[in-house]
Structure formats: C-alpha cells, structure tokens
Amino acid sequence: MQTINNTKKGWSVKDVIFLAIIGIFFGIIYQVWSYAYYALAATPLKPYANDITLGVWIMAGPLAGVLLKKVGASLIGELLAAAVEMLLFSSWGAATLISGFIQGIGNELGFAATGYKNWDKLGLLLSTIGSTIITFIWDWFQNGYNEYHMGLLVTLFIIRFISIGFFSGVLVYWISRLVNKSGLGK
Amino acid sequence: MFTHRLNPAILLIIMLGIGLQITFARSFLTNVAIVIIGLSYLLYCKISIKLISIMILSAFPVALGSWWSFIAFGTSDVWHVGWIYASRVYAYLFLGSILTLTVPIKDILLSLEKHLKLSSTFVYGILAAFNLVSRIKTQYKIIRYSATMRGTEYHLWNPGLYLRIIIVALNWSGDLAEAMTSQGFTEGGARSSIYHDNLPFWQWLLSFVLILIYFFFSFIVRPW
Q: Given A91, A183, B113, B179, which residue has the most CB atoms within 10 angstroms?
C-alpha cells in the first residue's frame, strides 16, 4: 500500500524535494554572490567579508522554518542547502557541511525558544539572535576570531548581526508575507 | 577497479570525524599532512590534475585573506597563526574533495542509505532534486529575464525573487513527489535495491584509526 505522509511533524518526500530545490537555487545565488565575497576575501578585510555576507549564506535555514513551520525545519533546511552546496562544489570543502549544521542549530534555537509557536517576527528575531551568537562562537575557533583584537571583534559582531538580521530576519519576513499574500503559505 | 577505493560512507565519516577536530586544532603541520594525504588519494583515484588545480586556485583568495588578516589584525604570534588558518582552508578543501570529487552524488546518497541508515525519503528526495540542477539553472535565468521584460530587475535583496523561486520549488516538488508515488515509491516502506557496494571491515577500522591518529597528533603531540 502506498502512503503519503501528510502529518505536520513528519518529513514527506515533497518537503525534502522542495527544500533541496530551494537549496539548489541558493547554490546559484551563492555563485553570483561569491564574486563580491572573493574580491573582498582575498585581502586583510576577509573577516569583514565573512561577516557582511553571512546573512545570505544562512538564510535558507530560517526560510525553511517559516515556510514549513516544523520542528527541525530550520536545521534540516540549512543542512540540506549546505549539502547541496558542497556537492555542487564549494571552496570550503568539508567545512561547508559542518558550518551548515552549526548555523542551522543557531536558527533552530531561536524558534525553539518560542516553543515552535511563533514563526513570525518574534521567532525570526530570536532566530537571528541565536544564529549570530552561535556562529560567532563557532568562528572563535574555526576562523581564529580569538586572535583578533577586541575592537575588531566588536565591529565584526555588530556587522554580523546586521547582516543576519537583514537577510535572515527582515528579508525572510518580507518573503513570508509575500507567500502568505499569494495564498501559498501553509 | 572500484574495490580499492574507500566507500562513500567511510569517506563521510573520515571527513566529519577529522573536520570537526580541525576546528579546534592549532597546528600547521597536521593541516599540511591532511592536504598531502588527500591529494595522494585524489591522484590514486585518477582525478584530473586540471580539476585539482582549479580547486586549489578557487580556494586561494580565501586562504590568502585568512593569512593576511592575521598578519594585519592578529594579536599574538601572527606568523604562526596566519599559516595555521591559511593551511586550514586547504585541509578542509581536500577533506571535502576526497568525497565529492571521487564519488558521484548518487553513489554517496545510496551508500549513506545502505550503511548509515539515512532515511530513503531524504535520499530519493535529494536525488530527485539533483536531477533538476540544469533545469533549475535555466529557470533562474528565466525568472530574471522575465522580470527585466516587465522593467524590474531582481537583486539579491528583493523578496520578489525568492517568491518566484518558492513558487517554482512548490510546483516542481509537488509534481515530482506525485510522480514518484505513482511509480510505487512508498515513504518508509521496504524497498528492493539494485545498488551494491563493498564495505569491508578494514575500511571501518581505517576510518577509526585515522580519526584517532589525527586526534593524537593535533591535541597531544601538537606539532608547529
């Protein structure tokens, strides 16, 4: 007997394909975006390049969250996008998948903090705060942020929050409003 | 010919097991060791020199920027730190490429389903989406062209761009999922499989030993 999983908690093959297709679109967007990133990243301004662009790299996660409204959607959405990116080719290699996981956790914590009840402004705000803090801690080790001096760190943290706040917060909110207006939302 | 290559599931375990440790290791020499071992494995798998060179060049801006930023903004032993983080970029790169350059995507996913129990919903869902890669690329261009024809240009920060993407993803994923179900795909159901691969016990052992050796050198010996 064939079964189609329509429950809200479980993952159906339709959800997976949906997120993977969005992940591939993001892969294309990343390629366009990466020219700007590389131009800046090849200079001592590389940490700035990281933090200014970070919001774009991680927006697949919260977008998956507000579109599917499921426990784990942000984490799996971000992980899928990272896996797609790694398989399509990424100059970060193995770090892509690991960072995707960390970024997804950050977003997921924000939605979890609302008890998975708020997928609107509050959920998104907490999700951006969660991912800003978690990814910053991660970069402390992975990208050696512990070696930079205090002034730079403060600037980087603020830039990171603005980038994540805009792309993964405000922009995702605008997108979800458009989706709801068009009657496609769940 | 395929028998002496490592199984994709084992490569993923090595990649994550060592990749996670790299983040906390502070050694230039262990990074170089990973690059050399990874490069040897790529050459053993007869990956073209041209492809490897492109890969090395593509990561160069990031490695250079890492190195330079520590020289410019670092606080302690800037030269050592600069070399650690620049070589780390390449360690990650080669660690990823031993999986992504040597095994086709389909085999990676089917091997993960068989040996690491990744759910078939994810395996076949991702596979279905990957079959659309070239169409998705075309569709992205169409979305932008059609917007230009209406006199609007989509930038990365326009929500309209993403709405179009979401509409396409919704339609295509619905169609594909329906097609798969009508062809007999049952979520969570038992399936017969035509995918076969070799995963001898020594490969599990090898992944375990490599991860331990890496741990020993990076956190106990701690070379330069």
A: A91
> First and final CA of chain A: distance in angstroms?
27
Instruction: Write the CA distances from B102 to A145, A168, B5, B106, B209, integer angstroms.
Output: 33, 34, 9, 12, 21
Question: B18-75 pLDDT, tens per residue?
Answer: 988 888 888 889 999 999 999 999 999 888 899 889 888 888 888 888 888 888 887 8
Ranges of residues in chain B with a pLDDT under 70 are: 1-3
CB contact under 8 A, A25 and B174: no
**8 A C-beta contact, residue B102 and residue B45:** yes
CA distance linking residue A74 with residue A79, whole number of Å: 8
Q: How far is A116 from chain B (nearest CA, A)?
A: 22
Q: pTM value?
A: 0.86
Q: d(Cα B87, Cα B89) in Å, to the nearest integer?
A: 5
ipTM: 0.84
Neighbouring residues of A4: CB distance < 8 A, sequence distance ≥ 6: A12, B181, B187
**3-state per-residue secondary structure call for B128-185:** HHHCCHHHHHHHHHHHHHHHHHCCCCCCCCCHHHHHHHHHHHHHHHHHHHHHHHHCCC
- Between positions 26 and 85 of A, the ones with CB within 8 A of B are 28-29, 32-33, 38, 40-47, 49, 56, 63, 67, 80, 83-84
B71 and A91 within 8 Å at the Cβ level: the answer is: no
Domain boundaries, chain B: 2-105+196-221, 120-182
Q: How many CB pairs under 8 A join A and B?
A: 218
Q: Which of B19, B72, B80 is nearest to A138 (CA)?
A: B19
SS3 label, residue A118: coil
Gap from B175 CA to chain A (nearest CA, Å)? 9
C-alpha distances in Å from residue B183, one per residue of A19, B109, B176, B178, B180: 22, 20, 10, 9, 5
CA B16 to chain A, closest CA, distance in angstroms equals 7
Q: Do A13 and B121 touch (CB under 8 A)?
A: yes
Side chain identity at residue B50, one-letter code = K
Q: Do B187 and A3 touch (CB under 8 A)?
A: yes
pLDDT tens digits, one per residue of A102-159: 888 989 989 888 888 888 888 889 889 999 998 888 888 878 788 888 888 888 899 9
